[in-house]
Amino acid sequence: METGLTAAQVEGRRRLGRTNAVRSQTSRSLASIARANLVTLFNAILLIAVAVVLAVGEPQDAVFGFVMALNAVIGIVSEYRAARTLDSLAILDQPRAAVVRDGSDVTVPVADIVLDDVVHLGLGDQIPVDGTLLEAHGLEVDESLLTGESAPVPHAEGDRVLAGTAVVAGRALLRATEVGEGTYAQSLTRQARRFSLAASEIQQGTDAVLRVISWAILPVVVLMVWSQTRVAGGTDWRHALVLAVAGVVGMIPQGLVLLTSMNFALGSATLARRGVLVQELPAIEVLARVDALCVDKTGTLTTGGVRVRSITGAAGGGAPSPWARDALAHLGAPRDNATSRAIADVLGPPDVPAPGSGREWSVAFSSAHKWAAWGDGRAAWALGAPEIVLDEADPRGRAALERAGSWAGEGLRVVALVRAPAASAPQEARLPGGRVPEALVVLEEELRADAPQALSYFADQGVGVRVISGDNPMTAGTLARAAGLRRGDGGALRICDARTLPEDAGSEAFAVAVESHDVFGRVTPEQKRAMVRALQRRGHTVAMTGDGVNDTLALKDADLGIAMGNGASATKAVAQVVLVGSEFSVLPGVVAEGRRILANMERVSSLFLAKTTYAAVIAVLAAVAGWTYPFLPRHFTYIDAFTIGIPAFVIALGPNTRRYLPGFLRRTLSLAVPAGLALSAAALGAYALAGPGTAAGQTLAALTLITGALWLVSITARPLVPWRAALLAAMAGGAVAGVSIPLTRGFFALEWPEPGQWLVVGALGAAACLAIEVCHRLGGRLRPGRPRRDPSPGPPDG
């Protein structure tokens, strides 16, 4: 019997650093967060711009640098606080392992395992260290994260197993030979995530726009420097350089990337407080786009626990024979899966075989063949799914199968015990011939109390939920109905036995079959993965929930993998989202948070991109007309504060329940570009009427731009619930107050307009508002991917 390490040996290895501790995967250091917020292309451009202005201009024109620094500080603080929240949640979700120390079994965090520790391995465990097997009892290991092969690999005593792989059958004792950074555990998990990172439509769209802007900046800089120097006649090149800086600064959507990352970080922190660990920030946006949710019945709709309801003889009722009960006790003794534990809880330990009865053997349960077996030299006993272990060619087998089917129709799980003459373990995990039914074990599962509410939410939101289970299809269907699963059209649930699906998982027939059914039974791990891929080929954004090792491959391939907190370590390792409390009811809240972020970012993105449009257009047209550029850098700081910075931040953090609609970037640009053109026309018109190159012209251009831009804000803020209306009023009031107060007016180089000039601002501002409104309404009809009205029930947001 293994006694393991002593406390002194463990302490000695800890002092030498030979532990399994590695850097937390969810942790982001303050330095990495600071780098992400500071070291960017546009921050570099802005820093150069600040240096130029401070060298040749007035300090007031470098205020945009202070705004940039303030934005970065806000981003760093919010993301660091979010990271701290996620780290604290990750500690609660820290995987643990059973080890032998001082002759006793103790449970320790995986990070506390030391070199030469003796580790217990059981069904569903992710192997935490590299090591050598001291004992192995029917051990099968899923090495797909290493080799890509999904078939379980049997292992025997003396074999070497690697961290990052997972136990799918049997149990074992392992001596750790490599720990910490010397193992595959952390690197494999990072690789799995690197190849399955959640794809954020917001980030992809923003990156596409930023690439275009980065290419456009250099020619605009050259054009601005040349035109402003020419307008100044070469005598005031310093002022010309400051105006060129203004044109470039105006084109950069400073806060868009920051606001996106802040929204993700704050959203993750919000979900963390609800017991949801988001391991990849964009994952919460992906949930907003999900229209197909695949759930594993066990552990998602049910608690994952089962109990024995009854054990009857297979012939027609009554108690099973004593030798059948003893065989069941032997099959339950390993306690390495839910069924064996339930049987062991009822029958207790098995009797010791009689002397001379022959050598015992066993075949551990595997999800691949769906049965376990035991023998003592006189007979072989197999316990598993009735349709697999029962011999339909035998009348007794058919009768037992009919009885099992009737129970399955009531939502109960049934496993059958069969006996066959055999002197040794079956080869290649094949069932022995001549099987005779001996007993039926009826098991019942406990439905999660929160499942009906969550399923009802998804049905109302148009998310197709499919139950994918390894159990009997009728059992899965009955439980799904009891949990409240319903189709969007109100029709009856469509149930499918996965064994009847087309063999070619890549075929169109397979994809059609998956899309046209709601409940699947007898699904193999490979089929789960194929179902996810089939739905993706049919254009769906797929989320997959699961808690077992057999769900790992499907979770990895899904657009979003969601693991239950009480699930296997391997499952949580590849998931982007972990429900720490294993509560299915929190998923609607996760979806709602993703929709809030996506919808609000679409609202405010048009503000940033409209500014980029009008800044570029004004720069080009002013150069073509031979005018002094209308704005100093400080003017853009003033305009941005009231039309982008403050309103975008407030609106982006507000509630929003609008359903996801594809085409984020197209919709944003279809409003931002026409709005930017209208605003540039109005601003240049006011500038021309007041006199190019004058302070009055700059003031009128700025106020006209603010008037039209606030109308764009009102469009993005609709419906104008009281708090948004108050925000708009405050921004308009602040803009007027800025030109009425001498201190701020002087600081921002503005003038108080004459009455006639206010009329110009009002007329051209109103024209810009009208043009923006027309573009918005016309775009609402023609914009791809946008319905005429929000199909979701109730108000779109509030």
From TrEMBL:
It is a multi-pass membrane protein. InterPro entries: ATPase_P-typ_cyto_dom_N, ATPase_P-typ_P_site, ATPase_P-typ_TM_dom_sf, ATPase_P-typ_transduc_dom_A_sf, ATPase_P-type_domA, HAD-like_sf, HAD_sf, P_typ_ATPase. The keyword Membrane applies. Pfam families: E1-E2_ATPase (PF00122), Hydrolase (PF00702). The keyword Transmembrane helix applies. The chain crosses the membrane at residues 38-56, 62-80, 208-228, 240-266, 608-629, 635-656, 668-689, 695-713, 725-744, 756-779. PROSITE patterns: ATPASE_E1_E2 (PS00154). It comes from the Bacteria. Keywords: Membrane, Translocase, Transmembrane, Transmembrane helix. PANTHER family: CALCIUM-TRANSPORTING ATPASE (PTHR42861). This is HAD-IC family P-type ATPase. It comes from Schaalia naturae. The lineage of its organism: Bacteria, Bacillati, Actinomycetota, Actinomycetes, Actinomycetales.
